[in-house]
């Protein structure tokens, strides 16, 4: 409410009514007469033009328009003013890493008291404040949005209006007392009207919070930045019947009943934390309880909270949690530090999950699983994300980020830790393949587009937009490179030193780098470039063998492509793991490498060295292996030792050889992918020139030998016979052609299916199981292989194969097999497809998580003209634009079909454009994720470019656009 006063602070109402704003009865909005632009229009035509010029908000033309902004002087409204109006008040502002300043004041303790209600929630906060520099007289600036200020006291004395300043986003004490003081602030918020799902909101009738990155400022006025770390207590008061469970961080220290059917609970968190880790949950929940005894003997109570009917579906999450706790002790020596660990599952959540201290809050799709309702992929995701959030307790919570630019300090590191955890629980190679595929399909395109940013961004408008695959996945690759360079023990030494130095602190990426370096006395050259340079480096390798000198040379050159704001790049430090195969396919023992004028021994006395890590640091550089007695085939970038695009001079024969023999299983898969990428690109060229398509028999043979190799891991086989994604291929083209790429991928799939039909059929036959569902690697691998074969067979539009898939559908005893059969069937339009989809819905209509799979499957369909079907599904009774999971399934799913989203007639773009504007009014974070689908529009042909650009421009000219969507849309157009 307060923020509505800003524009007219010098004219009407001014600040007189700050305390008067509190009113329980809804009062009509009064628009004062200073200036009024009809309706909800927020930007003047002039501004819209500036925005279309894609000027950045901090530039002067944009600012100049502030004066022309509409002024609303509102006394009170019901509900609170929405975000629609928020951006009317302040121009989006870009924030820069280089502007970081230490806070002038620190907070020591924070006591929060919540009185939760149906119409309003009162938040009372009491903070002990002290200046960073004794005797400082700097103003104290608190962040706060979407709340009514009720009262403010300093050292017990109520402040009068002249003692502070309130604008749409801040509460400023101009001259706070010198030295330590207490600050008490009472505010009113309306969680029941909060559809943004940040701050305090309601999900299925329960109260919950999401404070990262900057949601705490929607709960109470505070220095909402991670370098403010304080000890919290939290008292929650609520109706006892409606909200029997009251949770917050730390330990429960008091609870009791109150008059009027209410009760309360008091929680105390003994650890200092930034406010983004604060959490509160209140509602009708029940728990699965278990215990974990840490290796030092601390008994920890574990509780996973859900609505009563879902408690049976939390067994796998509990198993995952205990496995994660044990793993962190075994691998990193890290123990849990409290006596209680709570996990709460909520159906409405913008992201996957949140690591709030001792009270993790999860999107329910990442907690709830039963064999009948969740697929193997869901089980694996739950394991990984439960691990991820738990691991944050040390990497994120005990040691946190100084500012949000350092996000990868906790996220890259924690993703790396959860990847390692999942590897150790399943198959290392298969996990690595999955992670690298994700990087290639999602992060590479981001790094090559208008939203490209370094692992540590230099600036942002809305921090939420920087929870990206670059910060997370590329950030994890950066952490992995330390381990590749230092080895397991060296990496562990670095981690130990990091915790020893920084426990309880808010630090930077350099601090992590320094710990790794100092613990090992390591020379990391220009490794820090990985944090500051965006763009995927392209590494070219040429090889030559000298039969007389018995040397083998690898010449490297590297190039980092230009990205927005970074046109010239420095060379990077690229660790390249290499092995050399002899003609029988075995690794040659390596003795020494000549490089930079010196001969370095790589041999060890204890065992032959079969692989080594080359340190590529220059633009051009040569490494010469000595004592190589036959022409080797090099296996380069083993295990994908750096996040680069590798271009080598290996021939197809070399690649087939590596596919068959490489001891590095990752590179066996990779060789197959390189071959497939080459093949697909050349067929795309044929398709574009209307040449007939034919499939290279050697490729079919290569895949056949993998498919029939019983010595291989079954999930490895499934991955090795899966073609690179359409996005990956489009990403490699001069002008992306979704129709050609789709036609080619479909052609190869069908051709493989028909040529290897009997092999695929026996693969299905031999990998059925009538046994009970087990979540372990051998069983998941078996199902993955069987279902990959089934999908191939389903691509053959013949009735025999449809019958087979239908049979699999009917006899399936778990969701993995059932959904795989449904997907196989739904590749081809027709009555069978319609009937089975209808049957599936009828069966699962009461399970919203399964219904989301049903939405996604239809949305992702490549059947031409599917946009109409998706539009119909928007009106399906099970759909709801306010629930992020449903949006991700239906809208996100649709954008995942290149042929339909990029339909030539622009129907896909138009659809997304309309949805983004609707969504933005409800939930800017989710709208912003959706609008990102437009960001690579320049990669397409001119007519598609025109159509996509039109949609982006329409979005940009909309009234009251959120900063979230503004940032993505404007940068996309820039
Ligand atoms: N820190 C969370 C993680 O573990 C990410 C997250 C959850 C988040 N909810 C959010 C980030 C909302 C931004 C906004 O990765
Ligand atoms: Zn995280």
UniProtKB/TrEMBL annotation:
Domain Peptidase M1 alanyl aminopeptidase C-terminal: 652-974
Highest taxon of the lineage: Eukaryota
Family matches, as Gene3D superfamilies: 2.60.40.1840, 3.30.2010.30, Neutral Protease Domain 2, Peptidase M1, alanyl aminopeptidase, C-terminal domain, tricorn interacting facor f3 domain
Catalytic activity, reaction form: Release of an N-terminal amino acid, preferentially alanine, from a wide range of peptides, amides and arylamides
Keyword set includes Aminoacyl-tRNA synthetase: no
Biological process, per Gene Ontology: proteolysis
InterPro entries: Aminopeptidase_N-like_N (IPR045357), Aminopeptidase_N-like_N_sf (IPR042097), PepN_Ig-like_sf (IPR038438), Peptidase_M1 (IPR001930), Peptidase_M1_dom (IPR014782), Peptidase_M1_pepN (IPR012779), Peptidase_M1_pepN_C (IPR024601), Peptidase_M1_pepN_C_sf (IPR037144)
EC number(s) from the headed UniProt entry: 3.4.11.14
Domain Aminopeptidase N-like N-terminal, chain residue ranges per copy: 112-277
Family (UniProt): Belongs to the peptidase M1 family.
Record protein name field: Puromycin-sensitive aminopeptidase
Source species of the chain: Gossypium stocksii
